[in-house]
Amino acid sequence: MSATYTILLDDLRVAMRLGIHPHETEPQPVSLSVAMTVCYPAPPAADRIDEVLDYDFLREGIWALAQGPGFALQESLCEAVAALCLADARVTAVTVRSMKTGIYPDARVGCEIVRTR
Fold first, then answer.
1. Quick check: helix, strand or coil at residue 79?
2. How far is CA 67 from the centre of its chain?
3. Measured distance CA(85)–CA(79) in Å, rounded
4. CA–CA separation, 96 and 76 (whole Å)
5. Is 1 buried (19+), middle (13-18) or exposed (0-12) by CB count in 10 A?
6. Three-state SS for 73?
7. Quick count: other Cβ atoms within 10 Å of Cβ 97?
8. Where exactly are the structural domains of the chain?
9. pTM, whole model, 2 decimals?
10. Which residues are within 8 A (CB) of 17 and not within 5 positions of it... i.e. 6 or more apart?
11. Topology of 3-116 in CATH?
């Protein structure tokens, strides 16, 4: 009996270069949320991390992306995070949302994508 779960990483806040405007050459606050649909051959029986997807790789991978040269587009950032998730064969679908939190005083601006196998 297979088992499907949604693994969530919500509102991870990083500072990174993201944007096309001159004032965006310096790191700015960005919030990322990820929902991964993960399928296992069976529900975890022993309550051990080696039975499931350890989401530490995702947090560490996003932090690594944030330390890199940056992205011009939020769409490109979301695609990079989705590819990171889909590198694990157990992930069948992923939703990635990025939000620039400091662009406007009265709103956040972002992008959300859904990718499946």
1. helix
2. 15
3. 10
4. 11
5. exposed
6. coil
7. 19
8. 3-116
9. 0.95
10. 24, 25, 26, 27, 28, 69, 70, 71
11. GTP Cyclohydrolase I, domain 2 (3.30.1130)
pLDDT of residue 1: 84
pLDDT for 55 equals 94
Q: 75-84: which pairs have CB atoms within 8 A and are 24 or more residues apart?
A: 75/111, 75/113, 77/18, 77/30, 77/32, 77/111, 78/111, 78/112, 78/113, 79/113, 79/115, 81/32, 81/34, 82/113, 82/115, 84/57, 84/58
Q: pLDDT 10s per residue in the chain (117 long)?
A: 899 999 999 999 999 999 999 888 899 999 999 999 999 999 999 999 999 999 999 999 999 999 999 999 999 999 999 999 999 999 999 999 999 999 999 999 999 999 999
